[in-house]
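Need a sequence for this fold. Nothing fancy.
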């Protein structure tokens, strides 16, 4: 029985990485665009202070935006339902901290209304989220 030669004219000695590089660049672009959005879906300009504590764990966050809409996490919520929703999502509302993010242009009366709703719900530990002062902002 005759044997057929399976040799080809040339061997493939390199792997074509161009498609791989294309995919990696597209993924990099997608992550660069979506990373700031994933931090928080609600856009607020936080007030600036000298002392800032970083939030390192996933916590309950109540946000008040420029138009004084209230959010629990990223979902809009009625101020009258805020206490019930926080109690439902918290295992220990009396001791578990709730973080309050508020736009710096929101009147203090709106902030106190949210604080009162949380206190009526039994939330005793409310921490206000701020942004650190920069050296340039301190000198002005």
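Here you go.
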């Amino acid at each position: 029985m005759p044997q057929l030669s399976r040799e080809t004219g040339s061997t493939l000695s390199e792997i074509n990485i161009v498609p791989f590089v294309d995919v990696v660049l597209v993924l990099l672009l997608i992550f660069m665009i979506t990373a700031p959005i994933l931090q928080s879906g609600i856009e607020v300009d936080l007030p600036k202070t000298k002392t800032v504590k970083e939030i390192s764990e996933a916590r309950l966050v109540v946000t008040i935006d420029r138009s004084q809409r209230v959010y629990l996490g990223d979902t809009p919520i009625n101020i009258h339902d805020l206490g019930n929703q926080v109690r439902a999502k918290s295992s220990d509302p009396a001791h578990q901290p709730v973080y309050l993010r508020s736009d710096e242009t929101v009147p203090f009366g709106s902030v106190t209304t949210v604080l009162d709703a949380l206190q009526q719900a039994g939330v005793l530990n409310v921490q206000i989220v701020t942004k650190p002062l920069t050296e340039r902002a301190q000198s002005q």
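For context: Residues 136-140 have pLDDT under 50 and may be disordered.
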